[in-house]
Design brief:
Immunoglobulin-like, 4 helices, nucleus, 52 strands, 3 domains, six-stranded antiparallel sheet, 705 residues, Metal Binding Protein, Guanine Nucleotide Exchange Factor, Chain A, eight-stranded mixed sheet, mainly beta, Methylamine Dehydrogenase, Chain H
Length: 705
């Protein structure tokens, strides 16, 4: 039996705010055509931290309408359409300049997946043909291009889903005829594939309906995986299903090719010991629609959404009806916590020529509104451009939604077809960007963009406001920009940091104090967009006079130690340096040991809260104040909600140069209540200061691991 030890770190949660919604017109939002043609179809999109969007379609479409620069040509004898191709199938869109730069991608990226690593690089996995095992890296710089490893994956991945993990790595799940998952980058223990029978169980014969599974990182560090109309909670580190959720009512498939969409709703109340996580799944196609569409019968899409609290002990689906039926739609989290449902068709399914009747009107879903009577859904003004199969939508830093793509054909087809290949880019501006709300719109002054933040960090956000402040309707949010393709935005995440109280600094300038997320399970390391929202209106989305938007700040959630750092202190160092300085309120040179309330946290929750760096760990260090069992007594309370810590063996003296400086107590965690608890594998070493001359110092702080 493996022994597990603990480390702790200080991470605090900030409670989310209660806020009302503004009274709004029935339809709002504005559309702007940014580019009539970018030369390729935007089948896949990812916003990077430099306000560039990486876009690509597939290499075997034939010639695109975007030439490669400097006489470059792609030479691929495996290509099924064109072996020598001097046109681009990937591009970088400069949001600020509204310009396109062609990129050179060698292997076929058709129906691939991706995620952004903590250092800002886009890692892009799988595809078709010679791209099915490829790993591609794109670095955010002015002249960077794709770097490719054609055999970076263990298994072939086509229609798979990627998700960034709390340790900064990526998990790649599923794909056509792949009922398993793997990791990137590889380590000695992960250089293989891991079986996932759930994907076999959700596979409809000759139709599938479980490709591009919806994957969301739960607040406990496990993965919520939805495929077809079923869902599980997976402990991917042990390859164990820890929870099976009830089937979504109705029995209709929601995954590709019956493509609905899904989001993890905003995470709030991050200060609480128990955080609620809720998933929303909307749209899709009724059972049998794919075969019907192949025979020329285009069945009306689903008009229902299902919502489930995945952290509940006994979760159940709550069903809602959308005002518009939709398949192949995209769902995008907005800075104010609402959800935009956009693109897609009202009949048919995903696949070549299988969709009909474009849904031109986006819909905004307000998750905090009361349920019933359709009060959560608001229809928005329509686009004039149909966006069917292979369309995309992502949030930009200025609060607009970038919309592109749509190619329901095997090749580029611009004439004599019902819905031509679409090469344009549009921007949809939700109602919150309307000039009528200018007096309500905040503008962030600090922190500056590209600010680096640590977990559990107290953050003061300074902003200005032209009009009167409604103090109870301020909140700070941070959004992880997703990799979007095939109606699913991978790694999309919004966290409400709080902000109920704003302090006036000067006329029209305010400070709001929040705390960053406490662990990688809540917010994996990487780049986020930071917003201040006032009365449902996010900060200024207008272009400034320089090279940046007066808009959301890009922040970096990261560990406070450099790559390769490993923390292996001796008992003498833990007591004589770290604990002594902590008790005496002196500065610790490298503040890697965090403060927690040990008796409000279960041992299995300590791993993410007390992580040091990105390396795999089996020890976690922390400071904690001792909690007295009785107010007037001396006995220590060592109980948690799930169990208790029990001392074992004798305390061990800690010496420095033969001088007693402290004691080490060893404790084991038992599940249940004393004296009948069940012994677990969790072991804790608790250190306290001790002096031969003066006895123990009068301080209640202990250091444990």
């Amino acid at each position: 039996m493996m022994t597990r030890t603990l480390i702790l770190s200080f991470l605090v949660f900030f409670a989310g705010t209660c806020r009302r919604s503004l009274t709004r017109a029935a339809q709002e939002g504005q559309w702007e055509l940014l580019q009539r043609s970018i030369g390729i179809s935007a089948m896949h999109m990812q916003l990077l931290n430099n306000d560039r969007v990486v876009i690509f379609d597939r290499t075997d479409f034939g010639k695109s309408n975007l030439s490669l620069p400097d006489g470059k040509c792609r030479n691929d004898q495996n290509d099924t359409a064109l072996q020598i191709d001097c046109t681009a199938h990937s591009a970088e869109f400069n949001v600020l300049a509204n310009s396109i730069r062609p990129l050179m991608v060698q292997t076929d990226v058709w129906c691939s997946s991706g995620a952004v690593l903590p250092d800002g690089r886009l890692v892009q996995t799988g595809g078709f043909n010679d791209g099915e095992r490829a790993v591609r890296i794109f670095r955010p710089c002015s002249d960077c291009d794709w770097e490719e490893n054609a055999f970076g994956l263990t298994a072939r991945r086509w229609y798979a889903t990627d998700h960034i993990l709390p340790n900064g790595g990526v998990i790649v799940i599923g794909g056509r005829r792949q009922f398993n998952y793997e990791f990137y980058p590889k380590s000695a223990s992960t250089n293989k594939i891991f079986s996932l029978p759930f994907l076999v169980q959700t596979n409809d014969l000759r139709i599938e309906n479980n490709l591009y599974p919806f994957v969301h990182l739960n607040v406990d560090g496990n993965l919520f995986i939805f495929a077809n109309n079923h869902a599980i909670l997976l402990d991917y580190t042990k390859n164990v299903v820890v929870k099976t959720y009830p089937e979504m009512p109705g029995g209709d498939p929601r995954s590709y090719p019956s493509s609905g969409s899904s989001v993890l709703l905003p995470l709030k109340n991050l200060q609480q010991s128990s955080i609620e996580a809720e998933v929303l799944v909307c749209g899709g196609a009724p059972k049998g629609s794919y075969v019907q569409a192949q025979n020329g019968n285009f069945v009306q899409a689903l008009d229902t959404c299902g919502r489930i609290k995945i952290t509940d002990p006994s979760p159940e689906w709550s069903m809602e009806t959308m005002p518009l039926a939709r398949v192949m739609g995209d769902m995008t989290l907005l800075p104010n916590g609402n959800v935009l449902i956009i693109n897609g068709a009202s009949a048919g399914t995903a696949g070549w020529e299988l969709g009909r009747n474009p849904v031109l009107n986006p819909v905004i879903y307000r998750p905090n509104n009361p349920s019933g009577s359709g009060s959560r859904f608001e229809i928005q003004n329509p686009s004039t451009i149909p966006r069917f199969y292979h369309s995309t939508a992502i949030l930009l830093r200025d609060g607009r939604i970038l919309v592109g793509g749509s190619n329901p054909h095997r090749f580029y087809e611009f004439t004599r077809v019902l819905y031509p290949t679409e090469l344009s880019l549009e921007a949809f501006s939700p109602g919150y960007l309307d000039s009528s709300f200018s007096n309500l719109r905040p503008k962030i002054i600090a922190p500056v963009s590209q600010a680096k933040l640590n977990y559990g960090q107290l953050l003061v956000v300074r902003f200005s406001l032209p009009g009167a402040l409604s103090e109870k309707e301020i909140m700070v949010t941070m959004v992880a920009p997703p990799f979007t393709t095939h109606s699913f935005s991978m790694n999309q995440r919004l966290l409400v940091l709080g902000g109920e109280k704003a302090t006036s600094i000067s006329k029209s300038t305010y400070d709001v104090e929040v705390t960053t997320p406490n662990s990688g399970s809540h917010a994996p390391s990487g780049y986020y967009l930071l917003f201040v929202v006032h009365q449902d209106i996010p900060n200024d989305g207008l272009k400034g006079s320089g090279d940046e938007f007066d808009a959301a700040v890009v922040v970096v959630m990261e560990s406070c130690v450099p790559p390769g750092f490993r923390f292996h202190p001796t008992d003498e160092e833990l007591v004589g340096y770290y604990l002594k300085k902590k008790v005496e309120s002196q500065k610790i040179d490298l503040d890697v040991i965090r403060d927690i309330d040990l008796y409000r946290i279960e041992p299995w929750d300590l791993q993410d809260r007390c992580r040091i760096g990105y390396e795999e760990q089996n020890e976690w260090y922390f400071f904690s104040h001792k909690d007295k069992k009785y107010p007037t007594g001396t006995r220590t309370n060592r109980a948690t909600m799930a169990g208790f810590w029990k001392a074992t063996g004798r305390d061990k003296a800690v010496y420095d140069k033969m001088i007693l400086i402290g004691m080490r107590k060893t404790l084991v965690f038992y599940k249940g209540r004393a004296p009948n608890g069940q012994k677990s594998d969790w072991i804790m070493h608790e250190y306290r200061l001790e002096s031969e001359e003066n006895g123990p110092p009068q301080a209640s702080t202990s250091l444990s691991h």
